[in-house]
Amino acid sequence: MQTQNNLLWVEKYRPKKIDAVTGNDEAKALFIEWLKNKRHNKKAVLLYGPPGVGKTALVLAASRELGFSVIEMNASDTRSEKAINAVAKPATSYKALDNFTENAQTNGNVLFLDEVDGIAGNEDRGGVSAILKIIEDSLVPVIMAANDPDIEKLRPLKKECLLIRFQQVRIPLIIALLQKICLLEHVTAEFEALERIAQNSKGDVRSAINDLQSLGEENHHLSLQDTMMLTSRNKDTSLDETLRRYFSAQSIAETSAMLAFSNIDYDDFLLSVSDNLPKRYPDLTELAKAYNYVSKADLFRGRIGTENWHLLKYFYNDLAHASAVNPQSYKSFTFVTPPIRIITLFWTKGKRTMLDAICGKIGAQCHVSHKTAKHDFVPYIRAMLQKKPKSPLVSWFKFTPEEVDFLIKMGRY
Ligand SMILES: Nc1ncnc2c1ncn2[C@@H]1O[C@H](COP(=O)(O)OP(=O)(O)OP(=O)(O)O)[C@@H](O)[C@H]1O
Ligand SMILES: [Mg+2]
Question: Which of 39, 81, 120, 190 fits as disulfide partner to 126, beta carbons 3.0 to 4.6 Å?
């Protein structure tokens, strides 16, 4: 079981009260008003906006504060009509379930379908129409949340909902929240350091808190200097945006141009494209075609190395082909990101430097890129060393005792 100490701070400081959800005052007021007012003319509400701004947090805190029991469904894993009906039907059929809940103060249920843009994804099996039916029949308020409300499939849903838009949380509010957390975690931080974390988050409170934790857990005094490694966050944001634009592109020319003007890391991008293609192309023939282009792009990437930059246009061109195998079939979906990238965000600079040194040694011995060393070799070597810390691998790679220790203990990898 997790102790308070190793909890993620985003969980530990998840707002328990409406007041603790910072920013988006208008959206908040509108939602509370809707939830309180039993005579509202729309039975369902859709909270939408960018990630990490408090949509889910508000729904949970407000329902709790106003005495509702939340029947929650995360749409990502329940896309079919059958699954939705199994949970939602009973929950919406009784106005109050006082007799069945422990909370005698309850105002009844609310049904909360989080991430409905997930429901409407590629694998939609009647999910949207099932929700529509639930809304129509429901005796209890139906709350939904999504990042992207504009996807085609959600259109019929939007008509039935009160739409409430969330925006990025303003920087000064994020700074204030980070200051509070610092106080509770006994971290002293320079104002400029928190300002930088907040700015870097681009209004995403979740990522700001995550960054604060990654830096603050090890440095109990946080200076501006300590935040310098945070550029990776920007890189990640641009990777996500580039992926979104990449997968939704309507033509090869459009994608080629977009890639040529972006400043993403080619290797990260290639890896992420490969990881996400199966979500983009559920049709296997299309998927095979797309992978074919990606493997050609990969070949060019290898030849580009560090000097043959003139080959970059071929790399882009092949990638662009992979994105445009069937533009009509595009539906918004949530990206899979290589776990290593997500996890490294929680790492401090010291740990990254150590991992970089290790990958350098692996690269030198095995003649592989840094990336390959990190993704393919490190997990394997780590498993070997965990079994046998004095393995001959240690001297072969010339690992220092600290590096061996690091590899063995890197539990979060
Ligand atoms: N406005 C906020 N005020 C306080 N904490 C917040 C706020 N927004 C996010 N957080 C913190 O970030 C975590 C994640 O927020 P939340 O799950 O509400 O984001 P979301 O808007 O639902 O994002 P997504 O679109 O990715 O589902 C919360 O547990 C909380 O710790
Ligand atoms: Mg959410």
Answer: 81
Give the residue, 78 or 160, on which the prediction is more confident. 160
143-169 mean pLDDT: 87
Ligand 2 mean position, distance from CA 57 (Å): 7
* Residue from 8, 21, 53 whose mutation best tests the ligand 1 pocket (most atoms within 8 A of CB): 53
For residue 13, the ligand 1 atom closest to its alpha carbon is 31
Do residues 150 and 35 both lie within one domain?
yes
Task: Among 10, 24, 144, name the best residue to mutate to test ligand 1's pocket (greatest count of ligand atoms within 8 A of Cβ).
Answer: 10
Note whether residue 374 is domain-resident.
yes
* Domains held by the chain: number: 4
If asked whether residues 161 and 33 sit together in one domain, one would say: yes
Same-domain status, 31 and 78: yes
Write out the two tokens for 354.
Answer: 């150590």
The sign of the torsion formed by the CA atoms of 340, 346, 347, 348 equals positive
Mean pLDDT, to the nearest integer, of 318-340? 81
Does the structure show a pLDDT above 70 at 358?
Answer: yes
Query: Going by CA atoms, what residue is nearest to atom 24 of ligand 1?
Result: 51
Is the domain of 320 the same as that of 355?
no
Residues 379 and 305 grouped into a single domain = no
In sequence order, the β-bridge partners of residue 71 are 111
Mean pLDDT of the chain: 80
Asked whether residue 15 is assigned to any structural domain, the reply reads no
Residue 213: partners with Cβ closer than 8 Å, 6 or more residues away: 8, 9, 10, 346
